[in-house]
């Protein structure tokens, strides 16, 4: 059961470049232990419901809409938008809020960013709670966007293929990149909806039509698809497998970490979480037997809340 939550007690805008201004919110207890929630995508933005993972009497919950996402401006902007820009933004927000150390919580792309941030600033991270591990390796991108998940969701895959001519389907991420950056609004939005719908259609073990319907919202789909694709075309602005590199893991090895992974996660398959466990055996890895990718599936939600409850007094 998720925690009840109230409106944020602080809302602000953090100017991080000549282009980008980031929206942030602080909720829960003013005297609570700080935790930053790093949303997925890239480009997904924060959702009020994500406050429910944290006991509002114990945590000061910090939301940050990453560059171009959510309520941050300009929406869907991919200029000056890299993994390392986002890592710097997280540090800017920590300093702005005068926080010494905080817990870090992230799922999917948020798990990638959590690892990259922790490896860059290990002295600022109390604990990590991660879900649906994603590391942007070529094999992961190919599985979901080229061939692999397509064999499990053929009807959804057909809709994903529809905007791309057969002659361009040998590299679908690149083909989508051209359309998601088109100056023609109709072309761009058609591609954005198809890209976003593919992910929403595969994120849960039991498909939720309301979840899929989110992909039909043009503003959200445009930001989500453009920013995701931008990161994936550029392989996350990291070397292959960087966050799994033993030298990088050594930087964070002593940080208490709990990972929750859906057994039937098609978007970020369990093999990546298992790879993390192999290089970092000190982590606690829970594989949920009846869950896909979404944090909102009951078994996953339960374990995430148990993790934040456990870490609340660290």
From TrEMBL:
Main subcellular localisation: cytoplasm
Enzyme class: hydrolase
Catalytic residues, chain numbering: 108 (nucleophile), 265, 293 (proton donor)
Keyword Hydrolase recorded: yes
Domain of life, source organism: Eukaryota
Annotated ranges, domain AB hydrolase-1: 34-295
Catalytic activity: Release of N-terminal proline from a peptide
Keywords of the record: Aminopeptidase, Cytoplasm, Hydrolase, Protease
Localization, UniProt: Cytoplasm
Molecular-function annotations in GO: aminopeptidase activity
BP GO terms, sorted: proteolysis
A GO CC term assigned to this protein in UniProt: cytoplasm
Entry-linked Pfam families: Abhydrolase_1 (PF00561)
EC number: 3.4.11.5
Protein family per UniProt: Belongs to the peptidase S33 family.
Name the UniProt record assigns to this protein: Proline iminopeptidase
Species of the source: Multifurca ochricompacta
Organismal lineage: Eukaryota, Fungi, Dikarya, Basidiomycota, Agaricomycotina
